[in-house]
Amino acid sequence: MIKKIIPLTYLLTYASLSMASDIIRIDKQSCPDDYVYVSLRDVEAERNKYCLLLNDWDIARINNKASLSGPGYGCKVIKHDTRHLGTSLCKLIDQEEPQPPKKDMLKVAYIEVNDNPIRDAGCFITENGKPLFDIAVIFAANINYDGEKAILHFNPQVNDLLENNIHQVRELQAKGIKVVLDVLGNHQNAGWSCFANIQQARAFAEVLKNAVDKYELDGIDIDDEYSKCNQEYEDSLIKVTSALREIMPNKIISKALFHDQRYFETEWQHKKLHEQLSYGWEMSYWAASCNRVATYLNAGMSKEKLGIGVSTVITPPSTAKAISTCLKSQQLGGGMMVFNVNKHSESFLQSIWPDVKADQRCFNE
Q: Where is the GH18 domain positioned along the sequence (predicted)?
């Protein structure tokens, strides 16, 4: 629903604003609580409709530092507008938690973008011509330490993808594949388990949200490895995921699971880790049984969120096939995560799903 409303001033309270409309024009540089900028993707798809929300000589801030001008300026979109703008187009945050795609089994591809393009995740198709994978994970960004706080770091390959080849992400999204950014430690005094208080956790959550918004990604994947914290805190993960869920209520927040049961048993402000996660994939790639998720089930995580990971370079194809069978029998909604998917993965994937084929033209685009 889109409505044009009277331009708002600072005298109008956010409480009354939140009930006004799903999409609003506001005379401010930023959106109020419970609202986010309208996405560049949405504006480009229906530019005239959004333009009609604006006054003739408005220039409004939208997502990803872009802007949309009013009818008097011809409804023009500027994709990178660094000016200070006094008007914004904002949309109400969808409070519904993301649901698993309605398929027989969720299928997730981790792509090592140091060596392979993210588009590879969309190049494997089923017999009906649809993409095999539901989620593609960019592996990986890092949590670095700048001497004072945790920061988000992109190595050259991740940076090149997000800054120069973002069209590959858009191609996957156009195919219906969600694209998520994996974030892991980098041998520094910063990491998912290093946040001593909620202020630190919220600050890093905002950094992640800014990246998700800027590149129009579908969420964040947590890989709590390779950090060298001066001190770890068992409630750190709950703090930062709670902060993320507050500001990204309709995004995927997933986790690679490995010997971290203690974090699921910990409670912070009556919250538990499993409540904040969309999915979790257990990544003991050499283990053949689905029983490795039992401890997470016992900690309260639902079957709908849990899945199993396999690796194209570690897991024998026969083991991967056995895991696929037990995933179905145990009705684990998180499905199967496949690590290190690339253009050479066809035979491994066919050992699990015989009808899958690689579209060779896709790899060469």
A: 105-359
